[in-house]
Amino acid sequence: MDVAIVPSFNTGSDHRLLRGRFHLDRGLMRLTRIRSRQLCPTMLDGDAVASLAKEELFEAMDDIDAGYDDLGQTVTAIANSCRSVAPNHSSRRISASTRALLEKR
Fold first, then answer.
1. Is residue 34 included in any domain, yes or no?
2. Residue 47: is it exposed, middle or buried by C-beta count within 10 angstroms (0-12/13-18/19+)?
3. Distances (CA, A) of 78 to 40, 73, 81, 86
4. Which domain of life is it from (predicted)?
5. Which of 5, 10, 41, 76 is the most exposed place for a label (fewest CB within 10 A)?
6. Distance CA 40, CA 84 (A)
7. Does 36 score more than 70 pLDDT?
C-alpha cells in the first residue's frame, strides 16, 4: 500500500488530502473466499453418540443457566468426538461395478 499527502492547492479549506494506492492480488483474494466457504462433510456415528450419552452423568443443578450451559457443552463435546470425515464419493452417481470395487477397498 502506498500512501502520500497530495501537495497543497487552494480548495478553500485548510485540510490536506490523502492519496492511497492499494495493490491487491485478485486471484489470492478469490481463493481465500472460496476456501473459507468450503466445509468438509462429516458423518455422525449414532451408535457411538448413544453409548457416550449413556455413560455421561447428567446432574441436576440449582442454577438453571449453568446447568443449561453444561448440558450444551457436554452434548457438543459428545457430537464432536463421534464425527468422522464423510467419503469423498457419491455412490448414487456411480455404476454398480464401480460401487463393488469401492466396497472391496
1. yes
2. exposed
3. 19, 9, 5, 18
4. Eukaryota
5. 10
6. 10
7. no
pLDDT (average), residues 15-42: 79
Q: Tell me the three cell numbers of residue 16.
A: 490536506
**Which residues constitute the domain of residue 8?**
2-86
Distance of alpha carbon 27 from alpha carbon 101, whole angstroms: 39
pLDDT digits (tens, 9 = 90+) for 53-93: 888 877 777 777 877 888 888 888 888 888 887 776 666 77
| Residues 6 or more apart in contact with residue 56 via CB below 8 angstroms | 74, 78
For 1-105, strand residue ranges (E) read 2-5, 18-21, 42-44, 83-85
The C-alpha cell that represents 88 in the structure block: 469423498
Q: How many domains does the chain contain in total?
A: 1
Q: Which grid coordinates belong to 48?
A: 457411538
Report if residue 103 sits inside a domain.
Answer: no
Give the bridge partners for 43, in sequence order: 84
